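Input.
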Amino acid sequence: MGILDFLGGKKKDAGDAPAVDLRPVLDGYSLEVMPRTATKVEDFPALVPAKTRIYIAHIEGTPIEEMLATAKRLHEDGFKVMPHFPARIIKDQATLEDWIKRYRDEADIRQALLLAGGVDKPHGDYHSSMQLLETGLFDKYGFERLHVAGHPEGNKDIDADGSSANVDAAAKWKQDFSQRTDAEMAMVTQFAFDMAPVIEWADRLKAEGVDLPIHVGVAGPAKLQTLIKYAIACGVGPSLKVLQKRAADVSKLMVPYEPTEVLEQLSAHKQAKPDSNLASVHFFPLGGIKTNVTWANEHGGAQPMRVG
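Output.
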């Protein structure tokens, strides 16, 4: 079902009021930052709702000290902090254990997102999140929540033939891991611009026995050119056509993208299927943290923990 089905056939423009209540999907949203983008925000508690989960992306070349400093700052500000552990940039088990221990001891972190990472050639011993999980090190150091990646539009780094065979097998492995350990787990997806393939994927996984909560990746408000650049770099799948179609419309080319339509799709689906495993929204603030959070708060998200 497409967005036109939900909205009675009228395509909405950016800036229009939502036709569907977004509060159910914006309640408890999470946010992704990098150390360099986090430094641009002087006061997170004055901007971001209390206890928001904030992921810290670990980009290749970022020193662990910068990751730790950002994690410590955000934890002390009262947020749920979830640093990335990209398998392919971790040299060996000693490095992995050092990072886990330092996050716990220096920043009081007990949760992490484990993923393969956007690197073609592994820097060391690991190439997948499953290998990181199998070390048992996160359990050893008391990490209570472990999130993993989900791929509703496939992943050509994992399935070079364009199928979903390997990513599907990985999802089932992660489901099994969650059932034989005490870790609280969820899957987090890459951002998409059409909710239909995400809904279809989530429903299919659930029918196959994978019922981990899914935190749906959504790109925050940004210039269209910025989104297309990031979408291509991040390997966004068929939903990229939504942006390409918008770019072909000269009247919309200069109008900033807002995620209203994709969130309306998600909200309508959750109202129709309350038992859906599409649990919450995870924002990628590609147009800036302040721009994204302000938009989310104005469209139904919780308010900042303090005004400052």
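The chain has one domain: 3-298.
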